[in-house]
Amino acid sequence: MSVGVLAHLVGKMPYRDLAAKIGDFGFDHVQLALWKAVDDHDFSKPGLLTPGFAKQIGEEFDKNGVSISVLACYLHLYERDEVVRKENLDRFKELIRHAKFMGAPMVAAEVGKPNVPVEDKDWKTLVHSIQELAEEAEKWGVYLGLEAANGHLVGTAIELKLLLDEVPSSNIGVVLDPGNLMDEKNFQNQDQVIEEAFELLGSRIIAAHAKDRKWNGSQLDVLPAGQGTMNYMKYLELLEKYKPYAPIIMEECKQEELLGSKTFIENIQRKFR
Asked: What is the pTM of this model?
């Protein structure tokens, strides 16, 4: 599959305009987070989607030559407030139930970033949440895509592997982003970080993200793909080996940077095909 993009990188707007704009950029697939990218409908609580409306969204993107490869759900999955956590899970489940009507094979998420010291009960709550979401995904024939990200409760490839082992559902897959696994401490050993991620998670990858990283002398910057010093040759070579044609979604780009990063990734891909 070719390189896609986070839909909200081109702006937040009515979904018909969004689909047309992404099509005009030449992308043929997107990761769509409804409440980050669409402003002409309310997606702030569960119960606002219908199969007909979901189908209409999918058809509008399809009309512009764009498929929805990933539905994204930016919600905290181990929230200690039970009322808030239930609403978060209900919103997530609603996306799972409606994903197929938009043509999306997966609903993906990072699990949430702690704003208080983490306790053992937080991990147990997360496991329970993932079990609930996996059961819903199994009912609807949709993948639940989980992504590890620095600073989140699941911040490393090892932690994500532990979570997958605790919830052994075949409907759970991995959204891999090596840039999210790097920090100031391990960036100098980035090849090892990338290799470890594929060794632990490679068989479960269902989508991949693309951003770049660069050490500026005092901190690790986040940049569009092709503007940093992350070993993209190794990353894409291993992705081709483990999961050829997995959808790649670009992150961290301004609109004027989108096509340059897309070309950078596709030029590397051609070396392995």
From this structure: 0.97
